[in-house]
Amino acid sequence: PAVPGAAMRLAALLAALRPVLPLVLGLSLGCSLSLLRASWSQGGGEEQCPGAAGLPGARGGGARPEAADGRLVPGHEDFRPRIVPYYRDPNKPYKKVLRTRYIQTELGFHERLFVAVLTSKATLNTLAVAVNKTVAHHFPRLLYFTGLRSAKVPHGMVLVAHGDERPIWLMYETMHYIHQHFGSDYDWFYIMQDDTYAQAEQVKALVTHLSINQDVYLGRAEEFIGGDEQARYCHGGFGYLISRSLLLKLHPHLDSCRNEILSVRPDEWLGRCIIDFLGIACVSQLQGQHYHTYELAKNTEPEKEEEEEFQAALAVHPVSDMTMMYRLHKHFSRIQLGRAYQEIQDLQMQIRNLTSLTPAGEGGLTWPVGINAPFLPKSRFEVISWDYFTEQHLFSCPDGSPKCELSGASKADVSEIIESALEQLNSRYQPLLRFSKRQLLNGYRRFDPTRGMEYTLDLLLEAVTQKGHSHVLAKRVSLVRPLSKVEIIPMPYVTEATRVQLVLPLTVQDLDFVANFLDMFAMNTLDTHDNALLTLLFIYHPYDAQRVSQVDVFAGVKAMVGELEKRYAEVKIPWISVKTEVPSQVKLMDIVSKKHPVDTLFFLASVWTEINMEFLNRCRMNTISNWQVFFPVHFQEFNPALVYRGEQTASSSTDFLRDGHFDRHSFAEACFYNSDYMTARTKLAADILDRDEVLESMEVFDVFLHYSGLHLFRAVEPGLVQKYALRSCNPRLSEELYHRCVLSNLEGLASRSHLAMALFEQEQANST
After folding, report:
1. Residue 55 has pLDDT above 60, yes or no
2. Which range has the worst mean pLDDT, 2-16, 30-44, 59-73, 372-386?
3. Which stretch is the leader sequence (predicted)?
4. For helices 674-688 and 585-594, what crossing angle results, to 10°?
5. Nearest to 116 by CA among 98, 136, 101, 97
6. Angstrom distance (rounded) from CA 499 to CA 620
7. Is the preceding peptide bond at 359 cis, omega within 30 degrees of 0?
8. What is the per-residue pLDDT for 548?
9. What DSSP string runs through 20-35?
């Protein structure tokens, strides 16, 4: 009788445990697998547990030795991550942590390749110039090194003169200079002579396939005369590559090498130095990469040279003259261009083969193959319009006129496109047909931001057959000039801490607006302690200048300046008085420029400008000394009498930059450095000689545009807003400046819709 009771209790227990049974089984299986994995990782059964690593007689196993505080024992490269708690010593003063300027510096990234070219007095103006014109622009950084003293530097070259023409001394000083100035910035250093032609793209491709963690001394390996066969140096005539790690290890021994090693050739001296102190010999092959070279014989014709060794050469030596350097560059450029075209054709063929496997099928293949499809507008406002042109005229002009002469870059663009169209037609239909152009009937072009410039040409052609029969026909062709690889142009570093010197020219007609300008200046710069100063330029008419002792037309402005200086004791606002009938912007700037240091950042303002910190910061960031000047396009509000017609002016933030336009006719505002202005002004003075009347037809913008090689950054500036005011246009200025001033006033009245409503209301009022 007890057995059934026990069975019932067992059944009840199993029923109670059934819900948690999967959990128990899972835990058991997990623990078993963990124990199994631990036994595999520890190896054989003779090894001890991690806790027994420090016991006497314990053998080393899979566990890593640790100190008592949990840190790994020094000497082991395998580190375990750990959290370091922040601790600040209360007895030491707090120091702000200074971060690096660029994240690239903080992460320890380096630029890839630095190139040094060794030149001499005899070849500085010949072979070195040829190197600079052929391959210098392909390398990220290239410097020329010479032993001359005070050598005259050819245009566009950066030259380092050591002052000693001895070859060994030049090599020693060059290596020392490279380590001191660029040793921490670059991973690879390529050293060549100016009688060497190097394929820049091939050299750059070579360093991308080499590891930077090794000591590399790569070039054309040569044996020392009477030396060990295993010890080789890199021939300097064919260039050689040195890694950063090798340069860092070599630098402490350069002085010893200079004093102890005797050699006639600088490349042998450097190779002996590297071998003696570092034990590293030159190699021509490393990590699967070959350094191919070719020794150029006399009277060699590069165009006829068909040796495989010549075609694959990274460096060619010796180059006897500039003409040979240019011929080599043309030959190797043609080879690279052929390889690029062949690669494009192979990629296009692969795209055609794979298109049939896509969901869209062959219908999804775009033209040209491999180029993005044309932009598809989603509304009529997104349609990209075509510009019509002929061989003589363009019917969409930058100044808004309906027709203008085709000239400059546009004319060259049209001529090149027509030639390319004929070349493509002849390559497709020859030898059956040969085409020649009679006339361009119609031409259309548009810029598609997704793919590039598109062209459609209607050509009147003369087709000639193989038998000499000719026929005139019209044919339409389509061409695309695709967007090339986007290149990021490095810009010099600037900060927002630069002091801005505001310059405000004032005439009698501007007196009604000075109070508002000074109030905005005080509120947005003086109250916020912004690093900005103000200089006023009082422009007196000769009649007012004669009566200044009795009646000073600028007395009220000077009183307001005095009040500001009393309110802000640390602020001084100087002014300069000028007497003239024609207030030329260039003449006025000449006066201001002489009274300020050369490193002054000027902001040439107008009396209607409302100064704010946001714009001043952009003025600082967009103006770069010896590089770029900034001419902002201010936002001009419309005439409220025409826009609102008696209604209340909208003041909400959603209406910001709504009732107005960016005044592209005005060049009154400008940001530039005094040094840049003085340089451009000197070139202008040499051009016009003593004809000062030319300055009356020019603005500061024209000076920088025609007489400086700086970037002119012209962009709309939403932070520079001006209230509506009718400007007074001086008829004594040049016709172009007067016309621009009148256009600015007319376009600043109101938009077309506002003007139409005003005319409509006026006609209704007249009809009643």
Report:
1. no
2. 59-73
3. 1-22
4. 120
5. 136
6. 8
7. no
8. 84
9. GHHHHHHHHHHHHHHH
Strand spans (E) along 607-758: 628-637, 660-662, 670-673, 711-722
Question: How wide is the angle at C-alpha 703 spanned by C-alphas 701 and 709, nearest 5°?
Answer: 100
In contact, 717 and 632? CB cutoff 8 Å: yes
Of 669, 490, 706, give the one whose Cα is nearest residue 589: 669
Which SS3 state, helix, strand or coil, does residue 683 take? Answer: helix
Q: Which helix (H) or strand (E) holds 348?
A: helix 322-355
CATH code linked to domain 500-645+656-734: 3.90.550.10
Distance from the Cα of residue 662 to its chain's centroid:
27
Enumerate residues 6+ apart whose C-beta is below 8 A from 437.
Answer: 418, 422, 459, 460, 461, 462
Q: How confident is the model at residue 368 (pLDDT cuts 50, 70, 90)?
A: confident
Q: Token pair 């016009």 is at which residue? A: 688
- How many Cβ atoms are within 10 Å of 191's Cβ, its own excluded? 25
Host H or E run for residue 502: strand 500-506
The torsion angles phi and psi of 705, rounded to 5 degrees, stand at -70, -40
Arithmetic mean of pLDDT, 139-163: 87
Residue 757 has pLDDT above 90, yes or no: no
Among residues 168, 275, 286, which one has the least CA distance to residue 228? 275
Quick one: pLDDT at residue 609?
86
End-to-end CA distance of the chain: 121
Half-sphere exposure of 433 toward its Cβ, with a 13 Å CA cutoff? 16
Cα dihedral value 554, 557, 558, 560, nearest 10: 160
For residue 529, is pLDDT > 90?
A: no
Instruction: Look up the pTM and report it.
Output: 0.58
DSSP label of 730: -
Token pair 């050689």 is at which residue? 240
Which structure tokens are listed for 263? Answer: 């050699």
- In angstroms, the CA 470 to CA 465 distance is 6
CATH code for the part of the protein at 387-482: 3.10.450
Domain 104-331 is found in CATH 3.90.550.50:
yes
Length of the chain: 768
- The DSSP 8-state label assigned to residue 192 in this structure reads E
pLDDT at 65 over 50: no
Write the pLDDT tens digit of every residue in 77-110: 455 666 767 677 777 776 666 666 666 666 777 8
CA 499 to centroid of chain Cα atoms: 25
SS (H, E, C) 431-488: CCEEEEEEEEEEEEEEEECCCEEEEEEEEEEEEEECCCCEEEEEEEEEEEEECCCCCC
Percent of the chain surpassing pLDDT 90 = 41
Q: Where are the alpha helices (DSSP H) in 160-281?
A: 167-182, 200-208, 244-250, 254-260, 266-278
Which residue is associated with the tokens 């261009």? 337
Confidence (pLDDT) at 63: 41
Answer yes or no: is pLDDT of 674 > 90. Answer: yes
What pLDDT does 47 receive?
Answer: 41
Beta strands in 224-317 (DSSP E): 232-234, 240-243, 285-286, 289-290, 293-295, 315-317
Please report, for residues 321, 484, 724, the alpha-carbon distance to residue 344 in angstroms, rounded to integers and kept in the order given: 35, 13, 56
Here the tokens at position 398 are: 């930058």
pLDDT band at 740 (very low <50, low <70, confident <90, very high): confident
**Domain residue ranges of the chain, discontinuous segments joined by +:** 104-331, 387-482, 500-645+656-734
Mean pLDDT, the chain, whole residue set: 84
Q: Cβ-count burial of 225 within 10 angstroms (0-12 exposed, 13-18 middle, 19+ buried)? A: exposed
For residue 73, the one-letter residue type is V
Segment 421-445 mean pLDDT: 91
Q: What's residue 536's pLDDT? A: 93
pLDDT score for 741: 86
pLDDT at 657 over 90: no
